[in-house]
Amino acid sequence: MVILYILTFVCLIISWMISKNKTIRALNIAWKRFYKILPAFGFMVVVVAIVLPLIPPEYIARTLGQNNRWLGMIIGTGIGSISMMPGFIAFPLGGVLVSKGVPYMVISGFTTSLMMVGILTFPVEKQYLGTKPAIIRNSVSLLIALIVAVITGIAFGELIL
Fold it and tell me: What's the pTM?
């Protein structure tokens, strides 16, 4: 992670040397966008800080796949499919869950289905795309989320085929 910070800082300096005005404008745009998401991000941090200590880490890990990774993957993917939250909230939450012992493949299924499958947005999709295309899109997205989760499990040594 430190490497990314260093790389970002070096790129910022290069940008500054090439064009101070454009760099300042870009930093202003970035600050405004960050400021817009700050309330939602802060709310997520507060909720996670309050709720996670109330749930024993052993329960989270056991429920989401320490004992049965396949069931955990299905539960995580299902929760992601019916949830609605932006990525800037979902990915830090995934990091917290990994630190609590939840396998990477479960987090992968959760975040992938969260971003790609839209059970709650289905009525809107149906209205704009039609019923059949909306069902096909969500079904294919769910299948892709499951495949990504399995590949993640294999890559991290959580699944051995």
Answer: 0.67
